[in-house]
Design goal:
The structure holds two protein chains of two kinds. Chain A is α+β, with helices and mostly antiparallel strands. In chain A, 30% of the residues lie in helices and 35% in strands. In chain A, the strands form three sheets. Chain A has a four-stranded antiparallel beta sheet with strand order 2-3-1-6, with helices on both faces. Chain A has a four-stranded antiparallel beta sheet with strand order 7-8-9-10. A two-stranded antiparallel sheet of chain A has the order 4-5. The termini of chain A are far apart. The model of chain A has no long low-confidence stretch (mean pLDDT 88). By secondary structure, chain B is of the alpha/beta class. Chain B has nine helices and eight strands. In chain B, helix 1 links the parallel strand 1 and strand 2. The mean pLDDT of chain B is 91. The chains are: A alpha+beta, B alpha/beta. At the A-B interface, helix 3, strand 6 and strand 10 of A face helix 1 and helix 7 of B.
Chain lengths: 164, 213
C-alpha cells in the first residue's frame, strides 16, 4: 500500500507515560496487550477501534503511546485503570501529550533526574523479613524482600529508613 | 478548598509508608489525605488526617467505639450495612462518612437515609477502586450504584467524598484521572470539585445562615 500524502493521513497524538514502580522492565508487546484489554473493558470494541492504540517506543521507565487525535481522554482514562501487566503490579503515570514524538523525546531528556546518594546500609529487617534496597531517587526508597518468589516490595522514604 | 483523597491504607495495612503516600499524593495533585490508622500530621506539605474505619459491628458497639474516639481531627467512617443500620448510623453523632455503599444491597441507601445524611452532615463515600481495578460486572454494578446515589445527592445535597482506597502508591491516581473517572458516573467539574472538598464540609461544617433558638 502506498503511503498517503500528509493531508490525507490520519492525525495522531502521542502520550508520554512513566511506568511505576521504577526499574520495572516491560516488553512493549505486554504493555500493548494490557492497554488494549483496559480500553476494551472500559469503552468496548467500537471505541477501541477508534482509539487505535500503539506503543511506539520505550526508553528506560518512559513509554510513548500513540492514539488517534481526539481520543486522548478515552485513552488516558483507560490507562488509569491499568493495575497489572503480566502479573506485575504497575501504575502508569501520564506525563505529557503531544502531536510529535520528537517533542516527547526532548521531554524525556529533561526528565532524567540526577543520581542521588545511595542508601546505606543496603539491608533492613522489617517484621522478621529481610529487605534490600531496590531503588532510590530523591526521598523515595523502594525495598524488596529477599527471596526467589512471592517477594514483597515496600515503598518508603529516607526518613522512614532512619526511623527503622 | 483542599483536594482530599478520603481513604488510604498506609503501612502496615498496605505496602507504602504514610510519608511515601504523602509524597506521591503531592505529585498527583492532592492537598490532603485521610489515612486509616495514622495519627494526624503534616508530611511534605500534605495534611494527613487520622481516619478510623469501623466495620462488621452492631449499632451498640459502634456507638461505644465512636464515644471512645479522643482525636478531635479524626474522620470516623463506618462500613455500610442494610437499610436500617445505615439510617441509624446517619443519626449517630461523631460519624463522618458512610463507606462501601456499592457493596451493600440495593435498598441500603434510600431517600430517607439521604435526607438524614444531609441533615446530620454525614458524607457518602465514592470508592473509586472498583472503577480502577474492577472489571466487568463489578465495575458495572459500582457505576450503577454511584449513579443512583448521585441522583439522591442532587436532590438532598448530602456531602460526597472521593477515595481511592489505595493500599500502595501504585493504587493512587492523579486528580485529573479521578476527575475523568468521575465523569463516567455523570459528574461534571463542579460536582467533582465539591466531592473533593467533601472532607472539608464534614470537618468544618458551614455556619448556618439562620440560627434556630
Amino acid at each position: 500500500m502506498t503511503i498517503r500524502p500528509p493531508t490525507l493521513r490520519e492525525k495522531r497524538r502521542y502520550i508520554l507515560i512513566s511506568v511505576e514502580p521504577s526499574g520495572t522492565i516491560m516488553e512493549r508487546k505486554d504493555l500493548y496487550y494490557a492497554i488494549c484489554d483496559a480500553i476494551t473493558s472500559l469503552w468496548g470494541d467500537v471505541t477501541a477501534a477508534l482509539i487505535l492504540p500503539a506503543v511506539i517506543s520505550s526508553e528506560a521507565e518512559y513509554m510513548i503511546i500513540r492514539c488517534r487525535r481526539g481520543t486522548e481522554r478515552e485513552l488516558s482514562l483507560a490507562l488509569a485503570t491499568i493495575t497489572c501487566c503480566r502479573q506485575n503490579t504497575i501504575a502508569l503515570r501520564i506525563i505529557a501529550a503531544s502531536g510529535t514524538i520528537n517533542t516527547l523525546r526532548e521531554r524525556i531528556q529533561r526528565l532524567h533526574t540526577p543520581d542521588t546518594e545511595p542508601v546505606s546500609p543496603n539491608e533492613y529487617i522489617i517484621g522478621e523479613k529481610v529487605f534490600h534496597v531496590q531503588y532510590c531517587s530523591g526521598q523515595k526508597v523502594d525495598l524488596i524482600e529477599k527471596g526467589f518468589k512471592n517477594t514483597n516490595r515496600l515503598f518508603l522514604t529516607r526518613e522512614d529508613l532512619e526511623e527503622l | 478548598m483542599k483536594i482530599t483523597d478520603a481513604c488510604i491504607y498506609p503501612f502496615p495495612s498496605g505496602d507504602s509508608s504514610v510519608r511515601r503516600m504523602a509524597l506521591e499524593a503531592r505529585s498527583l495533585g492532592f492537598d490532603r489525605l485521610v489515612a486509616i490508622g495514622i495519627t494526624s500530621a503534616d508530611f511534605y506539605g500534605i495534611e494527613v488526617l487520622n481516619g478510623i474505619h469501623i466495620r462488621d459491628t452492631t449499632l451498640k458497639d459502634l456507638v461505644n467505639r465512636v464515644r471512645l474516639v479522643r482525636d478531635r481531627n479524626a474522620v470516623v467512617s463506618v462500613q455500610a450495612g442494610d437499610n436500617g443500620f445505615n439510617r441509624a448510623v446517619t443519626g449517630v453523632k461523631g460519624i463522618s462518612i458512610l463507606r462501601g455503599i456499592q457493596a451493600a444491597d440495593k435498598t441500603a441507601f434510600d431517600h430517607v437515609t439521604a435526607r438524614m445524611a444531609a441533615d446530620n452532615l454525614v458524607a457518602v463515600d465514592i470508592d473509586l477502586s472498583p472503577l480502577i481495578s474492577g472489571r466487568g460486572v463489578i465495575r458495572q454494578r459500582a457505576i450503577h450504584r454511584y449513579r443512583d446515589i448521585l441522583v439522591l445527592e442532587r436532590r438532598f445535597e448530602f456531602p460526597i467524598t472521593l477515595s481511592s482506597h489505595a493500599r500502595s502508591v501504585l493504587e493512587m491516581r492523579a486528580v485529573r484521572e479521578i476527575s475523568g473517572l468521575c465523569s463516567l458516573l455523570g459528574m461534571d467539574s463542579p460536582d467533582v470539585e465539591k466531592a473533593f472538598a467533601g472532607v472539608d464540609m464534614i470537618t468544618t461544617p458551614p455556619d448556618l445562615a439562620v440560627k434556630v433558638v
